[in-house]
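Review form for a predicted model. The reviewer records the input and the model, then writes brief findings.
Reviewer: anonymous (R2)
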Amino acid sequence: MTSQVSSPAEHADGAVVGEQRKPAGAKDVRRLDRVIIRFAGDSGDGMQLTGDRFTSETASFGNDLSTLPNFPAEIRAPAGTLPGVSSFQLHFADHDILTPGDAPNVLVAMNPAALKANIADVPRGAEIIVNTDEFTKRAMSKVGYAASPLEDGSLDGYSVHPVPLTTMTVEALKEFSLSRKEAERSKNMFALGLLSWMYHRPTEGTEKFLQTKFARKPDIAAANIAAFRAGWNFGETTEDFAVSYEVAPAAHTFPTGTYRNISGNLALSYGLIAASRQADLPLYLGSYPITPASDILHELSKHKNFGVRTFQAEDEIAGIGAALGAAFAGSLGVTTTSGPGVALKSETIGLAVSLELPLLVIDIQRGGPSTGLPTKTEQADLLQAMFGRNGEAPVPIVAPRTPADCFDAAIEATRIALTYRTPVLLLSDGYLANGSEPWRIPDTDELPDLRVQFAQGPNHTLDDGTEVFWPYKRDPQTLARPWAIPGTPGLEHRIGGIEKQDGSGNISYDPANHDFMVRTRQAKIDGIDVPDIEVDEPSGEATTLVLGWGSTYGPITAAVRRLRTAGENIAQAHLRHLNPFPRNLGTVLKRYDKVVIPEMNLGQLATLIRAKYLVDAHSYNQVNGMPFKAEQLATALKEAIDG
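Model under review:
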């Protein structure tokens, strides 16, 4: 969905406020500046679809938003169990926001397991909408409820709305020739309709979506639309929901432009396509499906009209091998994976370092080690990206900070790969990949020119005057070697993993040559032109710097805003380039008495910072598969300031 937004401005994360108005003959309408909603149910209840549709309508309405899908790794976890709970959290506002929110103002619980798995995150006074039809003795005992939480007083501190969602959905669809089981599947659309009424969300987009999604099954499309409308009408007519809410569009938050809601993996896919077009190179993806990176393969496979070719290989090694072969042949070679796949691809990444060919290796990080937590997020592949190859095999590392920023990060990684003839590792993660936010669609003239010149003929003259092609004769500025397309007359040269002789590319076992080549490849990476790191410090009086990378940007920035609102002075800086680091990073770090580095690992960036700059950086770490909460970070940073 797209929308037009104008007039730039900046706001802090606001609190929910209550301004009531009551049009004649209507229910009370309360205006809020932001809301956090969490849909939760069984992994077969369609919570991700429900959340996605609510998000799309919210984006089309013009709110700023941030989402957090959270689902089991199993394709179909046991029904009604805690491990089988799937949830989708959406934070939307009339101002600039950065995170999916710490705690939901509204929880929609489709069954006892969903309630029990999420109630600890719900603050007192929040609204809970419960599907009472699912609170049977068997379902409650399955998750450890000895008595019904709807009756034992344990929910007295909340505003509970008991709604027989299943029964009402079946009743609304009785005119359709559906079995009860088929009708029950539409209860998520009933819930979506109810929430759409509560928060004045547009409905046309969802109805069009359902018509398109079930175009081949018109009865199913009509049933889902009927359930959606029934939920809306229930909210409008029932006395249990006496108030509805309005969250105005974020009209003063963003620069003028056309916006759409976008997830990190979709933004990354679009960034790769844009980069290939700006480079005037065909895009080739060699990949093996792996959570949470598979969406990129799925998306790119739809865009053959842009010169994109996708190859689903038999394993991770074949995927990167094909991508490297495509790079040798003159394409923009890309391979996508997650942490376990990077481990399998490490030898071929080392080969790409030796061959000095442009290759994008995209790692959508997840919880590990081994299979670990496939659907949960983590930032624990940084040291693997930095050092996870045999020998001295330096690779540039780029990390996006938000879902929309994945677009720009893909273009930046491409620039480095093509300019310096090197594989580049792009480190996204599950939080960015699956989360979404508004993205301003750029004009093509805003994108950089990434075109490259292939080698055309001899580039070196031997002592006897013979003109030859030397595949490792370097550009004096970038140290990049020529990119020679196979089959070009006169450009025949050797490739392979054995060490090259400087210049000629012949096989060499000479110790001095090896030393020279190792140092030259390192110097090429060290010399990559990356922007200086920018420090956000309005007061100029801060003694504490919080340094982050990747997806911690949103929670860190939200925490810093809270501290500044409370009168604290604190500086913030965020790294996009992790190898090489920005040239001014050491100078920046030494300006502060304290440096705090929050990471979703056990301190990998902190280890690198302490080793390179001899700065006593303090780690604040979390590895529970979830992103940081802003309040949690704010508390930790306040302790660092006061300590």
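Findings: The chain has 20 helices and 26 strands.
Further findings: The mean pLDDT is 94.
Recommendation: see findings above.
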